Every structure is written in C-alpha cells, then in structure tokens.
Amino acid sequence: MLVERGLQAMNVELVSEAYAIAANYLRRSGAIPDTLVTDERLLGIIIKLLQNGEFNKIRLANTAIARFQAQAEARGVA
Q1: What is the DSSP-derived secondary structure letter of residue 46?
Q2: How many other C-beta atoms are found inside a 10 Å radius of the C-beta of residue 11?
Q3: Quick one: 57 exposed, middle or buried, by C-beta within 10 A (0-12, 13-18, 19+)?
Q4: Reduced to 3 states, what is the DSSP secondary structure of residue 14?
Q5: What percent of the chain has pLDDT over 90?
Q6: CA 69/CA 71 separation, integer angstroms
Q7: How far apart are CA 31 and CA 25, in angstroms?
Q8: CB atoms within 10 A of CB 44
Q9: d(CA 27, CA 39)
Q10: Does the pLDDT value for residue 6 go beyond 70?
Q11: What is the pLDDT of residue 5?
C-alpha cells in the first residue's frame, strides 16, 4: 500500500496499526463508510504525522481522528 504511493521506507506496521485504530473509530461513528476501501485523507494525515516525528501508534490514531474530524467540520461549514 505505502510502496505504491512512492513513499520512502517507513514503519508500515506502525502506519497500518494507527490507521486501523483510527478507521475503526471513524467507521463506528459514521464519519467514513464501512467499507474495505482505504480512506486516502485519513491515511495522508497519519503519514504526515509520522513524517513529523510521531511514532506512538495511539497518539498517531488519536491525532489523526481529531484532524480528520476538524477537516470534515471545516468542509461542512464552508
């Protein structure tokens, strides 16, 4: 998944686990559809956080959820 996007080597397991945590929460809350398709916005947020030096999967997931929801609210208001 990450190799296809042309990203440099990173901890794929960390990204995968953080994405799974965040996506599960967002699916249960109805913020993203309950499908097997990867949400590109959520993945992008997690990758940016990782590139900025965050390596704790729980903090990655929680921060990604907060940013995803903030972006969704901003899009709803605009």
Answers
A1: H
A2: 13
A3: buried
A4: helix
A5: 73
A6: 5
A7: 9
A8: 14
A9: 11
A10: no
A11: 56
Measure the CA–CA gap between 59 and 61, rounded to whole angstroms: 5
The label of the residue with tokens 């993945």 reads 43
pTM here is 0.82
The two tokens of residue 17 are: 């686990």
7: left (phi over 0), alpha (psi -120 to 50) or beta: beta
The 10s digit of each residue's pLDDT in 11-56 is 889 999 999 999 999 999 999 999 989 999 999 999 999 999 999 9
CB 76 within 8 A of CB 38: no
**How far is residue 46's CA from residue 30's CA, in Å, rounded to a whole number?**
19
